[in-house]
Amino acid sequence: MSSLSKMQDYEESVSFLGTWGPFQRRVFFLLCLTVVPCGYNLLSVIFLLASPPHHCHIPAHSNLSEEWIQVFLSSLKQEGCKDGWIYSTEYYQSTIVTEFNLVCSDQWKQPLTSLVYFLGGVCGCFVSGQISDRFGRKPVLFGSIAMLTIFSGALAFAPSWPVFTVLFFMLGMGQIACYIVVFVLGSEILIGSSRVLFSCLFLPFVYVIAMMLLPGTAYLVRNWRQLSLAMTVPGIACIPLWRLVPESPRWLVSRGRLQEAEFILRLAALNNRVEPPDVIFLSVEKTTSQKAESLSFLDLLRTTNIRYITLILWFSISVSYFGLSFNMSSLNGNPFLNYFLLSAIELPAYVTIWLAARSLPRRLSFISFTLLGVLALLLIQVTLHTFTLALVLLGKYGIMAGTGMLYIYTGELSPTVIRNTAMSTCAMFSRAGSAVSPYLLHVFFCIFLPETFRQPLPDTIQQMPPTQR
Predict the structure, then answer these.
(1) pLDDT beyond 60 at 412
(2) Residue 360 belongs to what domain range?
(3) DSSP annotation string for 353-383
(4) Which residues pair with 54 in a beta bridge?
(5) Do 120 and 229 lie in a common domain?
(6) d(C-alpha 266, C-alpha 260), whole Å
(7) Could you give the CA distance from residue 215 to residue 43 in angstroms, rounded to a whole number?
């Protein structure tokens, strides 16, 4: 049997394990736990960089009443505050903004810090995808968790804004990369209905629940340095999982490391109490392994088919999710409650994704969900202010469902030899796609993607289905 046929029949070769034995259940729940650190830290920027209401500090000897300060100070001609600032402590005891006075002439530093965090995520996606496809899923997963833990803790001791910004960049590098590699690792180890259940429902559910824990923590811990230390706890708790989470056998096979793959699968067979065949995989030619090792980011653009699919996916994964989440500070009301609701709305979205992934084509699902989200966001501009939060939640529901479906779509379209690079690259360039393309153009692009519903995962670039013409 040729290497191409062997890789094409991977799922048939490991079918002796079944789809939901003790091995699959263990991997399923362990991988769900490893996503907690990145979900918990995802939008910490909202609370760390919050800018509470503030005004110039009035010296005590000025004999000005509080009423005069509140009523008339805002009407005066604005100038620099020579005696510092007074910040509201209604919601926050201290933030980066209040400690380093990122207001007035230094107000530009606040959005710049958010941008640096965002750029860290872009760089992390670009680097981690290629490292994962070259050196394995497991090292990148736990390396990302380590980065989240180390730099979250380091933030608490930042003596200045420049130091905080550098550390925040490093924190961002481990953020999105962590979720993507967990998604890829689970998608490659699990097969059949358990893979759909993992990628569509349980993994994002745990991710969202971890997100929902952050506003509760921020409500109780309103000092940004203490909050930074609290953000290290999930990562520290995941350290012992290194010995329990296996490498992806599918990735090992794509690299020609058949003995390692068979060792993992035979242990899995032992756990599942099934008898493995004498030979699980036939030998792979050395040249195949060498060719796999040479694949990189540039291979996503090398052939016509993968270039079309990659470019469409780059410009289709919506940044609206991050836009809605990062801009929630503009909503009225309690910021902790708003963030909790914006996180909680993802739970029904993922249930919808799971139901759709079981029985509906990918393109139709993505287009429908995205149009729902777009319509809700457009209605915000023409409806009463009292309905804004409801429409924002409906908009995020639709955008989240569409984005979640597109993650599944990307994983199914991308071959094993370069799957993590492809998904990381799509996440990295999704920002550019949303910047140059309106929402409806995303839907237009998706029309040209091939369907993957009930199709086997490709392992090589040659096995990728052609785009629609």
Answers:
(1) yes
(2) 296-447
(3) HHHHHHHS-HHHHHHHHHHHHHHHHHHTTTS
(4) 87
(5) yes
(6) 10
(7) 10
